[in-house]
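Dock magnesium ion; give full complex structure.
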Amino acid sequence: MKAQEQALGYLRTLGLQGIVQGLDELVNDAESRRSSYLAFLNAIFSFEIDFRVKRRVERNMTGAHFPVVKRLEDFDFGRVKGIGRSEAVNLLDCRWIDTKQNLLFFGPPGIGKTHLGIAFGRTAVEKGYKVCFERVTNLIKLLKTAEVQKTSEYRIRRIMKSELVIIDEIGYTPIEKREANLFFNMISELYEKVSVIVTSNKSFETWAEMMGDSVMTTALLDRLLHHARVFTLDGESYRIKKSRKEV
Ligand code: ADP
Ligand code: MG
């Protein structure tokens, strides 16, 4: 018992929290297998590494700020035109994030744009990428307040250090010129460094109207569309269909 307490003390001092939690099991397992000293050492260190990876994924999942849980397995591809199941499943390997590509989802409300954005974002977090999800209205609020508000500054810093940024719901509310400017600067900074997922209910031909500056909107779209996969979704709104069924 004394030896175990001593071991736990050392492990805590060294910050090996995973082994602290798994020690009983690891020791019992080694005893029953009659492991060699080296095999035991390898077992406890690999346990610690797995524990840290898992903890980092959990932290990144919380830090991504996904509004709800959505998965690709629950997406019904039979009801929507513009994206195929195998095409979507191929994207789960996240290679497009390694090559700094963007995914743009266009289409009417309720078609599953946000669902897909979250599903790809969660998969990326599970694979170890750092991801941030923001509705564009909140993103702009953050950009506007970053200089005076610590929480906004912190969030913007996390966004800029992510490997994937998901910007949801572009097009529902008009963006003022100053706001569009801040947004444009941010996209310019992310360009070719960070992958972006954008969802919008408005086709990009009408973005200039929404942002009130056609030159800047062209420059913005230029950056988003260079190295991008564009999905123009169509079909019946899932929300309407569901509520109709429930009635
Ligand atoms: P959008 O962002 O295009 O307005 P959402 O992604 O928010 O639409 O979808 C609205 C609701 O319908 C969500 O609860 C979503 O999970 C669900 N949904 C939409 N399309 C599908 C689909 N093809 N299969 C399963 N659920 C869907
Ligand atoms: Mg949406």
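Observed: The radius of gyration is 23 Å.
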